[in-house]
Amino acid sequence: MASSTTPQLQHSTPEGIIKKCTTYANLLTEAAIADENKLKAAQEISENFETIVQSSSYPAFLEHAIPKFLLFLREGEPQFVAESTVQQIRKLLLEILHRIPTNEHLRAHFKSILSLMFHLLEIENEENVLVCLRIIIELHKQFRPPLQAEIQHFLQYVKTIYKELPVNVKQHFEVVSISATGFLPTESQGNNLPGASSQGNTPVGTPAASPMSSGDGGGGKTGQQTTIPKAISSLKVLAELPIIVVLMYQLYKQNVYTVVADFIPLVMNTIVLQPSLNARKSPTFNKEVYVDFVAAQIKTLSFLAYIIRIYQEMVNTYSQNMVGGLLGLLRYCPQEVAHLRKELLIAARHILATDLRNRFVPHIDQLFDEEVLIGTGWTTKESLRPLAYSTLADLVHHVRTHLPLPHLSLAVSMFSKNVHDDSLPVSIQTMSCKLLLNLVECIRQKSDEQGSGREILMRMLEVFVRKFQSIAKHHIPAIFKKCQQAADNSSSSSASASSTNSTTAQANTTTTTTTTSTTLSSTTSTTTSTMSSVGASLSTVGNGTSTTGGGLSTAGSTSSSSSETTTQSDQDTTTKKPLLHTSSAISNTFSVPDCRSMVKTLVCGVKTITWGAGSCKVPGGNKPFLPLETQLFTRLLKYALQALDIYQVSVTANGQYFLRPPSSQQVRMKEEKEILEHFAGVFTMMNTSTFKEVFSSSIEYLVERIHTNYALQIIPNSFLANPNTSATFATILVKFLLERLDEMGTNMDRSNLYLKLFKLVFGSVSLFASENEQMLKPHLHEIVNRSMDLACTSKEPYNYFLLLRALFRSIGGGSHDLLYQEFLPLLPNLLQGLNNLQSGVHRQYMKDLFVELCLTVPVRLSSLLPYLPMLMDPLVSALNGSQTLVSQGLRTLELCVDNLQPDFLYDHIQPVRAELFQALWKTLRNPNDNIAHVAFRVLGKFGGGNRRMLKEPQKLTFNEADTLGPCLAIYYPESVNPVTVSVGPVIERALAFLKTLPPNVSVLPQQSSINLDHTIFYRKQAWIVIKSYLVRKNLE
């Protein structure tokens, strides 16, 4: 019958299908119809159910069909043979009920459906009850019915299943209670549980093949049959029950609070059950049943994780069982079933997030065993390590103060390996670094007199140094290469607009991988799911699918995202690798944000470790670091300086990365400055002898790195600004610079760097006068004499005079008497040499520098009196010079007027009296009001003495030409005659500008009074004016 109707249904209208299916629903309750025909009718309804749902007659069909379905299921007898026709009908009808959309059309029927489902739970077989449970969950989620007696009865039914579990599971294998430490007893103790039976019995909790007879309702066929266990003894059903209990608690919290509390002892007894050692060795041991058993236990543990905060006091009573059960599940979870261990780790994370985590402290050494924590399965090692390590890291972080030194050492060992495991996501590597950083204080406090704590810390420092080395040798070059490729692609974009777009997108993809959490707290928050998601993670093991669970987000997604964001070249390389590979075989380059995060974590880590190691108890109280430890710090300096180059990578407005020019002296990021200061702090807390040992051998390398990355100047600046290291480092640095003083006259790049470093050394004298005066005193003569000598013979003498100016400005404040006394023997030759240079033929900016040097020699005025005549010409030049020189000249002149006798002063002024006072009168008209005010004050302090020198006439410019010379004729529309403007003064000013300004603009950045951009602009304009004038004259 059904076969003849099948083609008709396929080509019928929706209304026709509804009518036919209604007829089929009627057939289900007719006793005269054979079971085979009923099965075909149910199959037709199932195959056309989507069409029925979309029909306008769908509500009417439900009104008619649902009572028929429920009647068949209620009056029919449960079947326990999978091949039975009746069993197939019952299962198919339950699946149809589960497929009915939970909308308003179903509201009128959901109570009767729920009533039947609760009834079937106690009598049906495993397969059908699994469907019933899904129906119960869906209907309660959608319609939220009021509390009924059936729900209370259901909860009691679940309790019964848990109580009888030890008896039921012994039909499969002998079970024992695991110890509080998570280990199986050495000898079988299965007889201490009631209901023990032989393993040779036919299993009840799993389908089994047996001969089929003709009288079993299976349609008269003979052959093999599959027995389906009853639901009450099914492990698969048991695995699905916790999620419904959670749902009931959410819906009826007030009414079932006490009932749910009764589950806690049952849960605790359930999770400690394990097959005995004898059972595991038996040849009849059923591994599939064991997997179902462990799945049920893990679902039960997840249920405990959900309610643990609500019933924490009661759970604490059974904490010994909880600890032993969790450790046992980790130890004995089947290695090949990765999704079970994943759920177990998620549940463990929630349990360990409570105060009960302290119960695990005595047994935490087991969790440091990777075979216990992760297992030995290939899939678990590849996919679950991030989740496992983050879970353990959270536990160690919170209980670290309770851990003894041996356990802290185990933690350092495990997470040190993770730092160097490139197959792990960067977030886990960074998290491991942060955890090690948090253990430093605990290790320091618990270090014994034998120095074991310090040894652990130094091994930890070795781990960090090697990570710096890995970044410096592999990741930084790869990132720089990608940035260079992006820059090359961008520069060639004019050839093809389309290729530009694709190349830029590719470069951006390479360099903008999304960053993950970098702190333990953020890793915890992103990987730990909410309590509702724990309930959700309980739902899918029963039907054989793996759960994702709400908890695994950061650890799992980071690995996939980092593996997806590869360049085309990386993809080509990957295709050449073997088909079977591990993630560790793939070379993963850090993204720029990831690399910065890692470097930042490492820098903070080495600083904390250095502090901890220096504070640890050591034999004999020997605080300085040992020679091998000093070598470790030298390696740290080498590789960390290379790794810090990651901050040279900048980002454009469109998100593309590029390399900052090495000569750029601007620190673009606040983070970069902070990290460099932190790194300098690693060395400032060292013993002086260790510090000196490290930098005496590394100063050349440090300066070389600063030349490559100017932002690293913050490091020596921090050393010189710290009282513990200032004098030591200044001594090392000044010796290094003096050895290379001759290079300042040839290599402009190097000279600029050396000059800046000299300035840092000189500036430290003002910060710590007592120590650093002694540092600079032995080198003062060499600096001055060699600078003057090299300036006379070098190609670029300018920097030597800048060096002297920096020295004079730094120590010329009047508070460095020790240096002034050291400087006195140098004064005659120095002033004479500077006067000779000033009177020679030099560019104006050089003459200005000579004048400034004469006026700022670092000696007291009383020591300068014998050489006062040598200052008169520079003083006049200063008053006729730039604004800076005028100010300096006025200060010097006012100092002399205030402190010298008038007659003595006038005698020395007499040779230059005319030029001096004319310069003063000129200064009265200075546009700078402050300068003019000082000039008035100085003239007033002369007390009329200036008028005694009014003998020479003022210098006037006399124009002997009869005509204006070449002029510009400017015509205006309103004027008949043109307006003539002489170009002579313009040409003279332009020519003077070209003569006075330095042709080598590389020295201009040292001159604060000259703007480089303006200088280049005006030089070009001056040249254009002169060139145009000369061209015009030639044409005439």
From TrEMBL:
Pfam families: Tra1_central, Tra1_ring. Signal peptide: none annotated. Residues 189-204 have a biased composition (Polar residues). InterPro entries: ARM-like (IPR011989), ARM-type_fold (IPR016024), DDR_Repair_Kinase (IPR050517), Tra1_central (IPR046807), Tra1_ring (IPR046805). Residues 490-546, 554-572 have a biased composition (Low complexity). Residues 189-225, 490-580 are annotated as: Disordered. This is Transformation/transcription domain-associated protein-like isoform X2. The gene is LOC116287048.
